[in-house]
Design goal:
about 190 residues, alpha+beta, 6 helices, 11 strands
């Protein structure tokens, strides 16, 4: 009888855990902006949030700041872009220098304990995770197909995955593709 109660108790706890929306877990993650202010996704009140993992020493992260700044400017009423710097490898000064040099016009946060990395399973920079306002994943992968592989790029992108995912979502159309493979620099612990 003890075993039956133990099994039932475990199943009950599993059901309780499963009923908690995954978005609550994402919104509960607390990080700090590069200015040192507390930050969580629960404070964002836009239709979409794009978590973009970046690295100050990754050439692709540097190059894509232009595209990301443009998206943030053009979709400011419906989109919040959050640049995420994972792990303790980079100093605040390095990240601030990146922000200044590339005129980054969106929020940058430190994910020193890699809570966002672990939640999203991000592996490279830049890699994007686009969420709706309920923290449901809408799109994951590359910003576009300009980078074919490390060190190999096209003259220009043929497919603008992130831009198209944003547009399709806002127009109530199916986001397709839902997932692509991001090309970039490995996140430090991966």
């Amino acid at each position: 009888m003890k075993y039956v109660l133990l099994i039932c108790g475990c199943l009950f706890l599993g059901v309780l855990h499963a009923q908690q929306p995954a978005g609550d877990a994402l919104k509960a993650i607390k990080v700090r902006t590069i200015e040192g202010r507390p930050f969580s996704l629960s404070g964002i009140h836009k239709q979409l949030t794009a978590l973009v993992f970046l690295s100050p020493d990754c050439p692709l992260s540097r190059n894509y700041t232009i595209v990301l700044n443009e998206l943030q400017k053009n979709k400011k009423d419906s989109l919040a872009i959050v640049g995420v710097f994972a792990g303790p490898a980079y100093s605040d000064d390095e990240i601030k220098a990146f922000q200044q040099k590339y005129a980054v016009d969106f929020v940058l946060v430190r994910d020193k304990k890699e809570a966002l990395v672990n939640y999203t399973q991000a592996t490279v920079t830049p890699e994007v995770f686009l969420y709706d306002n309920n923290s449901v994943l809408v799109y994951n992968g590359a910003i576009d197909d300009w980078a074919v592989s490390l060190g190999k790029k096209k003259r220009q992108a043929d497919h603008h995955y992130l831009r198209d995912a944003i547009e399709n979502f806002l127009q109530h159309r199916t986001v397709n593709p839902f997932k692509t493979t991001a090309v970039g620099c490995l996140i430090s612990n991966k």
